[in-house]
Amino acid sequence: MNTFLYEVESIDGDYANLRRIDAEAAEPKLVARALLPPEIAEGTRLKYEWMQYEITD
């Protein structure tokens, strides 16, 4: 399974805009906050692996 690294660009209600930090040409991704860890904030870095998001340093 692939691993992707994201940073939370902005939070808009029930959705968060994520920007991939391991691929510069990738488009921003809109993700429902219900799928993300509850303690996210703008600037939080996430790892997506095995269909789950987790906070990373």
Order of neighbouring strands in the sheet with most strands: 3-2-1-4-5
What series of H and E elements makes up the topology? EEEEE
Helix content: under 10%
CA-atom Rg in angstroms: 10 Å
Largest sheet: 5 strands, antiparallel
Provide mean pLDDT, rounded: 94
Could you name the key traits of this structure?
57 residues, mainly beta
Overview of this protein structure:
The protein has 57 residues and is mainly β. Helix content is 0%, strand content 53%. It is built from no helices and 5 strands. The protein has a 5-stranded antiparallel β-sheet, with no helix packed on it. A hairpin with a 2-residue loop joins strand 4 (45-49) and strand 5 (52-56).
Q: Helices, strands, pairings?
A:
Blueprint: E1 3-12, E2 15-20, E3 29-32, E4 45-49, E5 52-56
Antiparallel strand pairs: 1-2, 1-4, 2-3, 4-5
What's the short story on this structure?
The protein is mostly beta strands and 57 residues long. The chain is 0% helix and 53% strand.
